[in-house]
Amino acid sequence: MAKEYDLVILGGGTGGYVAAIRAAQLGLKTAVVEKGKLGGTCLHAGCIPSKALLRSAEVYAQTKESETFGVLASDVKLDFVKVQERKRKIVEQLHKGVQGLMKKGKIDVYEGTGRILGPSIFSPMPGTISVEMNNGDENEMLVPKNVIIATGSRPRTLPGLDIDGELVITSDEALQLEALPKSIIIVGGGVIGIEWASMLNDFGVEVTVLEYADRILPTEDRDVSKEVEKVLKQRGIQIVTGAKVLPETLEKGKDVTIKAEHKGEQKAFTAEKMLVSVGRQANVEGIGLENTDIIVEKGFIQTNEFYQTKESHIYAIGDVIGGLQLAHVASHEGIVAVEHIAGQAPSPIDYTMISKCVYSRPEVASVGLTEDEAKEKGFNVKVGKFPFKAIGKALVFGEAEGFVKIVADKNTNDLLGVHMVGPHVTDMISEAGLARVLDATPWEVAHTIHPHPTLSEAMAEAALAVDGKAIHF
Ligand SMILES: Cc1cc2nc3c(=O)[nH]c(=O)nc-3n(C[C@H](O)[C@H](O)[C@H](O)COP(=O)(O)OP(=O)(O)OC[C@H]3O[C@@H](n4cnc5c(N)ncnc54)[C@H](O)[C@@H]3O)c2cc1C
C-alpha cells in the first residue's frame, strides 16, 4: 500500500538526515530512504573515520618525538588493528546517535534503494518513490508532496585507471586497510590526497604525491599551498607537481608502477599501493531522473538557489549538486531546502562565507577569497600575514609552522578572505567566518581582545598586520 508523506528524502547522509531533522522540527511528515547506513559518506567513509585515523597518526608521530618535550618514551609501537578498532567505535557511536535522532524526530527510515517514478496511479506528477527494500520485502511505495534528492557522491578515477581495491585503491578502500603498506603513490594532491599523505607519512609509510596542477591544494591561497608543500617535503613526503599521470603505463605485480609526464619527460614511480584521489562524482544514476524533467549538467543535478530542480517539488542538495562537496555545506543546503518547502523565507547560502578545512599536519583552513581571486575580481588588495613562530602558544605546543593571512580591500577595509596554515586552525577558522558574516573589518577583529597565550592571537595579529601594525613580528 502506498504511504503518504509531506517529504521523502532520498539518501540519509549528512545532507539527507539533517534535512529530515529540520523537516520534523517544522512539523512535516518525513521519511528518509537509505540504501547503506544513516550518516552516509561523511560518517562511514569520509570525515569521521579519516579524522579518527589522522588523530592516531598524529599521536604516533608526536609520541616518537616526545623527547623534545622532555618526555622519554622508548619502544614506541603502532598497533594498526587497534587504530582501526578505535575508528570503528567512534563511527558506531555516532551512527547510533543519528539513528536515535531519527526516532526522536519520528522520522520514518526505509532501508533500501529508492527510485523516483514518473506520473503514476499514485500521483499525476513525477516524485512517487519506489523503495527496493534491503531485506527483500516487497517494494514500498512512498507518495510525497515533496522530494529531496541527497544521494551524495562516490570516488572518481582517471579514464583508464581501474580501481581494483587491492593495489589501486580509493579512500573507500584505504579506510578499511587492515595493514599499512610500506609505500604508496597518491594520485591527486587535493584535500583528500593531502590528508592521506600527511596521515600515512605520520604512520611511517613512504609517500609520493603526484599532482597535475602546478601546486598541491590548488584551490587554496598560493602561499598556503607553498607552506604545506614545504612542511610535508621536510617530513619526507615526495611531492611532484605538474605531473600528468599516464594511466596506460600502469603495471601491476607485487608492487604497482606508473609513469607520469613531468617537465617534458616520462618518469616512473613504484610503490606497494596506489591511492587515487582525483575528486568525487555525483550519484545520479539509477534514481529515476529519466522519469522527470530534472537537468543534469557535467554530472551534477542543476538547481536554483533554494535547491529546487526543474521539477519544483523535487529538490537536490549536497554532493549530488556539486560545488563545495563538504558535509557542512550539504547539511545547510538541506536546511534551506526544507525551510523553502515549509513556506518559510530562508536566505540563499553565500558560498564565499563557507569555511573549508584540510586536516593534514599542519592543518589548513580558509574562508572567502584568496589573494589571487581578490585581485582577479578587481579589488585593491592589502594583505596581513602573521607567522605562528611568533605566537607563544604555538611554541608551547611544539607546532610553530604556518601563518594566518588576511586579504582585505584597501578601499573599503572589507575582510575579503582569511587563510590559515598551522596548529588547530580548523578550530580557529570559525572566528574568521563569523567576522565575514558580521561584515567585520580587520580593525574590529584586531580590537577584539584575544586571550593570551592562545593560538587565536595569530588572527588578531594578522588583522593588525593588514595595516602594518602587528605587535609581535
Ligand atoms: C575521505 C573523505 C574525507 C572527507 N572529509 C570531510 C571533512 O573532513 N569535512 C567535510 O566537510 N567533508 C568531508 N568529506 C566530504 C563529505 O563526506 C561529503 O561532502 C558529505 O558526505 C556529503 O553529504 P551528502 O549527504 O550530500 O552525501 P553522502 O554523505 O554521500 O550521502 C548520500 C547517501 O545517499 C545514499 N544513497 C545513494 N543513492 C541512494 C538511493 N538510490 N536510495 C537510497 N539511498 C541512496 C548513500 O548510501 C549515502 O548514504 C570527505 C569525503 C571523503 C571521501
Which keywords apply here?
473 residues, alpha/beta, FAD/NAD(P)-binding domain, 3 domains, 5-stranded parallel β-sheet, 27% strand, binds flavin-adenine dinucleotide
Give a summary of the structure in a few sentences.
With 473 residues, the chain is an alpha/beta fold.
Question: Percent helix among the residues?
Answer: 25-40%
- Dominant shape: globular
CATH class of the largest domain: Alpha Beta
Q: What is the number of helical segments per DSSP (H or I, 4+ residues)?
A: 13
- From the N-terminal CA to the C-terminal CA, the straight-line distance is 71 Å
Write down the Rg: 24 Å
Mean pLDDT: 97
Structural class: alpha/beta
For the record, the CATH architecture of the largest domain stands as 3-Layer(bba) Sandwich
Present as ligands are: flavin-adenine dinucleotide
Write the layout of secondary structure elements.
Layout lengths: L2 E8 L3 H12 L4 E5 L5 H6 L1 H18 L15 H25 L3 E9 L12 E5 L6 E10 L3 E3 L12 E2 L1 H4 L8 E5 L3 H12 L3 E6 L10 H13 L3 E4 L1 E10 L3 E7 L2 E7 L1 E4 L3 E3 L13 E2 L2 E2 L12 E3 L10 H15 L14 E3 L4 E6 L2 H6 L4 E7 L4 H6 L5 E7 L5 E8 L2 H13 L4 H5 L10 H9 L8
Parallel strand pairs: 1-2, 1-5, 2-3, 5-18, 7-14, 8-9, 8-14, 9-10
Antiparallel strand pairs: 3-4, 4-5, 6-15, 11-12, 12-13, 16-17, 19-20, 20-23, 21-22, 22-23
